[in-house]
Structure formats: structure tokens, C-alpha cells
Specification:
By secondary structure, this protein is of the alpha+beta class. The chain has three helices and five strands; from the N terminus they run H-H-E-H-E-E-E-E. Strand 3 and strand 4 form a beta hairpin.
Length: 149
């Protein structure tokens, strides 16, 4: 009987430790993606951010940007030269396992209404390895009176 209780307690401890580890991993992934985004898009350092946070493989699902870290930072280095006041406000950060989603307000300058963006990243071994996004212009008025944020 004591052996059975010990086995049950060990099993519960293992499950609990796994759940705590999974939660901390999700939190670490969320921090990694937030830090990447701040460096790349608000500090306008896409090359430095890519070299620090993007893995050796980087699968891109945005139809306008090729695969790979170099394609990412080449695209955005040019973008920031053309839009030096561009900035992003991170509204929400959500994590689920190896996926992290950011809900963002992105503006090219202070007069831009902006775009509502959801960026989804897949993290593997502490590096960003895959990206999807959904982008929508922020309208002047909405049919329901609600904001996009």
C-alpha cells in the first residue's frame, strides 16, 4: 500500500513539475518574442534582432517577405530608412506552447491611423523559426463603435 501511495505521489509531482515547466516555457517564449519585437520594430534594429532572436531556419508566411533571417532584416532595414518614425504598440501577448501571438497597433508616423496586426511566431529551442501575420487598416469609423483594440 505504501509503495502504491509513493507511486501516485511521484506521478502527481511529475505532472505538476511538467505543468510548471510548460508554463515557464510559454512565459519565456512570450518574453523572447516581445524582446525581439521591441528591438526590431521600436528600436529599428532588425538586423541585430534577427541575429539575436531568429533561428538558422526561418519560415515566413507573409507573402511579401521571403524565407530566412536575412530576407527579414533586409526588408525592414529599408522600411525604417523610408519610415524613420515607424513604431508599434504591443496591445496583447498570448502564448500557447511553442506559439506566441502579438496583437499590435503599427503606425508609419504620428499622423498615420495605423494597422491592426496579429503576428504569430513559432519558437523552437529559444529561437524564432516561423512567422504568420494578419494585417488590417484601422478605419476612421467602425459600424459598431468599437475600437480594434
Amino acid at each position: 500500500m505504501k509503495k502504491m501511495i509513493l507511486i501516485v505521489l511521484c506521478s502527481l509531482f511529475s505532472i505538476s513539475a511538467f505543468a510548471v515547466g510548460a508554463t515557464s516555457n510559454v512565459e519565456a517564449n512570450k518574453k523572447l518574442v516581445r524582446d525581439f519585437y521591441e528591438m526590431a520594430f521600436n528600436q529599428h534594429k532588425p538586423t541585430e534582432a534577427a541575429k539575436k532572436y531568429i533561428g538558422s531556419k526561418y519560415i515566413q508566411h507573409n507573402p511579401y517577405v521571403p524565407n530566412g533571417a536575412e530576407a527579414f532584416y533586409s526588408y525592414f532595414e529599408k522600411h525604417f530608412k523610408e519610415n524613420p518614425k515607424s513604431h508599434v504598440e504591443i496591445k496583447r501577448v498570448m502564448g500557447d506552447g511553442d506559439l506566441v501571438a502579438l496583437h499590435l497597433l503599427s503606425k508609419q508616423n504620428d499622423t498615420d491611423r495605423g494597422r491592426a496586426i496579429v503576428d504569430i511566431f513559432r519558437v523552437e529551442n529559444g529561437k524564432i523559426v516561423e512567422h504568420w501575420d494578419v494585417i488590417q487598416d484601422v478605419p476612421e469609423k467602425t459600424a459598431n463603435g468599437n475600437t480594434m483594440f
